[in-house]
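Please fill in the sequence for the structure shown.

STRUCTURE ENCODING:
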């Protein structure tokens, strides 16, 4: 006689996990040139609340948004996506599309695939330029913007606040283009070693007292899988790009987050954006480097939550109140 199957007890905790997983959607979509772009949508926005769309930094994967996703997915739909040539997205052998413009079009393809009507775009590093360029082309998609540790134009002009950094990049670009295999080997030697974590701290690329080693290891593993020619070509494209003219045209609530120790995109750039974007807010994080997103995630999440509550939801309620208020006949 067969023994009765053991019943699985569904607790409130396990039921909550099942409900959460039911809100997870992972998929791919085709961009304008047939490149496969991978995305992940977690959570569901309540009522008419906007979706949160995250735009990555160069060489960074969606794992940089894990803390933000976990914080907001209960009440919002949070979308992350891999740039072409990054993570689970593909890369065609077509160098003319190794560009910021192609990345922007990829972002639009993800938005269309998910049927997003309004979103708050949260950009980190290169994602700031991507977000601003998306706004230039499709401002109707924006409910707001959060621009984190990034610039609006030519990032190498201000890298480490060194005027000649862009000239150094030109040399590196030529070497990487001419000797891709050797350049990739050198990058592996430089990054994939036990001392890289501490070297990153000495060079103020990250705060070793705040960032978790596993987050740093994820970044190194990811960036070493990015094609070096694509990486340098995309960086060259970002260096040739400027969205400075967009800043004065922004008409949505905007929060700018910067770190006082950020050497890649110095704090004064964020202060300039704050002056040029009308009614924008700036949040300066103490002891935060360019990797502040994973160094102090709780602080960032709470500040974004405050911004959304005070600027996005309040604005929405104000519009509703204006529509519902009775008109007084003259």
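FILLED IN BY: designer on duty
SEQUENCE:
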């Amino acid at each position: 006689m067969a023994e009765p199957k053991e019943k699985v007890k569904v607790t409130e905790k396990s039921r909550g996990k099942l409900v959460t997983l039911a809100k997870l959607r992972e998929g791919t979509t085709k961009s304008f040139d047939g490149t496969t772009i991978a995305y992940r949508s977690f959570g569901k926005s309540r009522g008419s609340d906007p979706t949160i769309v995250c735009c990555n930094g160069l060489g960074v994967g969606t794992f940089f948004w894990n803390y933000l996703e976990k914080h907001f997915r209960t009440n919002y739909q949070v979308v992350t996506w891999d740039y072409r040539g990054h993570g689970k997205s593909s890369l065609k052998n077509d160098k003319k599309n190794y560009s910021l413009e192609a990345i922007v079009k990829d972002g639009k393809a993800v938005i269309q695939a998910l049927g997003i009507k309004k979103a708050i775009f949260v950009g980190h590093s290169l994602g700031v330029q991507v977000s601003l360029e998306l706004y230039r082309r499709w401002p109707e998609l924006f409910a707001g913007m959060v621009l984190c540790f990034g610039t609006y134009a030519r990032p190498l002009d201000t890298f480490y606040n060194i005027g000649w950094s862009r000239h150094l990049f030109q040399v590196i670009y030529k070497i990487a283009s001419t000797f891709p295999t050797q350049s990739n080997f050198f990058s592996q030697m430089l990054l994939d070693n036990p001392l890289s974590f501490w070297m990153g701290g000495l060079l103020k690329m990250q705060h070793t007292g705040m960032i978790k080693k596993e987050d740093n290891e994820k970044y190194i593993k990811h960036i070493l899988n990015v094609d070096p020619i694509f990486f340098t070509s995309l960086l060259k494209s970002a260096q040739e790009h400027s969205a400075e003219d967009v800043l004065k045209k922004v008409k949505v609530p905007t929060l700018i987050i910067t770190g006082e120790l950020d050497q890649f995109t110095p704090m004064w750039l964020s202060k300039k954006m704050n002056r040029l974007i009308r009614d924008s807010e700036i949040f300066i994080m103490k002891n935060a480097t360019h990797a502040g997103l994973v160094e102090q995630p709780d602080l960032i999440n709470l500040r974004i939550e405050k911004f959304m509550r005070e600027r996005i939801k309040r604005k929405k309620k104000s519009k509703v109140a204006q529509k519902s208020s009775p008109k007084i006949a003259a």
